[in-house]
Amino acid sequence: MDLRRAEIDAWIDTRCLLPGQNWKKEIPTIIQNSKLFIALISKYSLNKRGYIQREIKYALEVLKEVPSHDIYFIPVRLDESIPYDEGLLNLNWVDLYPSYSEGLRRILTSLTNLNKKPLEFLSPVKSILSEENSLIIENPNDHKYLTFGTRHAINYTPYRKFSDYVKDFIEKLPKSAIYSGLNYLYYITLLTKSEAVVLPPFLLEKYPNNIVLVLQHRYTNLKTEKDYFTVDLWFDNSRHNLKITYESIIQIVVPTIGLNIEKVI
User: Which intervals hold domain TIR (predicted)?
Assistant: First the structure.
């Protein structure tokens, strides 16, 4: 998850509660002791009765004890839902739509004062023991002991699939050619028939299977979203907006730095 990649010690009940723990007692304790509470709000969650409403109300009660100049409760919208609770309406919102990356950036700006917790990686395990409310895992290769607890990554790997790398790469590119060094150019090969890819009809006709796009001198308005990015490119002195999914990309080449990464199909 993206908070863990930023070395934020995020706690999620479905991932961090240990087997056998009393979740009705543990969750309020975690909310009370947390430095920040991030509530993901959607039309579904607002209209759903149950413990999720209790968690939000409990966090708002904790907020009353927090100094007015401190940030504790961060409401994050996943869609165009509007909350009913006055306590939520008084807080500045973050939207993860239409731009997930921009919303995540705004969230991270509120987390700059938190102590970072570097991710820890575990090797295959041999046995599990208990010690001081932590799980102790023995590494069968070198017989050293590694601890596993809520401060470790939640199912974290650098990239779970090729499209994760593509997304990370695209997000780091300059948003416009004016901010890019002229010696750098990026060749991006994609499958033109991939679902949700939007290209001008003349390109689809000319390149029915795949196309190599070159980002160098003339591109602008590069915007990254959760599953795709959009960019303005020029073809024959005509400007076109392209929508490209990360899944559709099969190769990225940057000759200047000797990078050539290709998806195995």
Answer: 1-115
